[in-house]
Design brief:
Distance between the termini: 18 Å
Radius of gyration: 14 Å
Strand order of the largest sheet: 3-2-1-4-6-5
Low-confidence stretches: 114-119, 130-136, 145-150
Strand content: 25-35%
CATH topology: Nucleotidyltransferase, domain 5
CATH superfamily: ATPase, nucleotide binding domain
Number of helices: 4
Order of helices and strands: EEEHEEHHEH
Structural class: alpha/beta
Largest sheet: 6 strands, mixed
CATH architecture: 2-Layer Sandwich
Mean pLDDT: 78
Length: 150
């Protein structure tokens, strides 16, 4: 099957689901990030802990919910260095949420991650502005993977 990790890095939490096809292998919530008594000191710590906990073997893609992509992004987007730079520029549009999403993008699957047999096929951003009801993004991510494998 196709494993997909979906991350929703909010202002003070990280929600995640790891799918294998339509089966949910793992899901959870790291909350009160940066708060006294919270689950993690910052998003970096939360995500590194999460990535160490998950079995990422066979991972095909990582989907990231990003709150605001401005006028530039109107559909799910393969994440490149240019997309990351653009999201950084757009932080003023979502100053509480986009920084967490950027950390998720940077930490989720670094190039030197020795636990993976290969790097994910794709890392995709799905823009919350396009999904205002925060619908699950796994199906869109999976569809995009299939379309970009050509």
């Amino acid at each position: 099957m196709t494993r997909v990790l979906v991350l929703n890095c909010g202002s003070s939490s990280v929600r995640y689901r790891l799918y294998d096809g339509s089966e949910v292998l793992a899901k959870g919530l790291i909350q009160r990030i940066g708060e006294s008594g919270g689950d993690a000191a910052d998003h970096d710590e939360a995500l590194r802990t999460l990535m160490d906990r998950l079995d990422l073997s066979g991972l095909a893609a990582v989907g990231h919910r990003v709150v605001h992509g401005g006028e530039r992004f109107t559909a799910s987007t393969v994440i490149t260095d240019e997309v990351v730079a653009a999201v950084e520029e757009l932080v003023p549009l979502a100053p509480l949420h986009n920084p967490g999403a950027l950390t998720g993008i940077r930490v989720a699957v670094p190039a030197d991650d020795h636990r993976l047999h290969r790097r994910p096929r794709a890392a995709l951003a799905v823009w919350c502005r396009l999904h205002p009801h925060a619908q699950p993004i796994q199906s869109e991510v999976t569809t995009d993977i299939l379309l970009t494998r050509g």
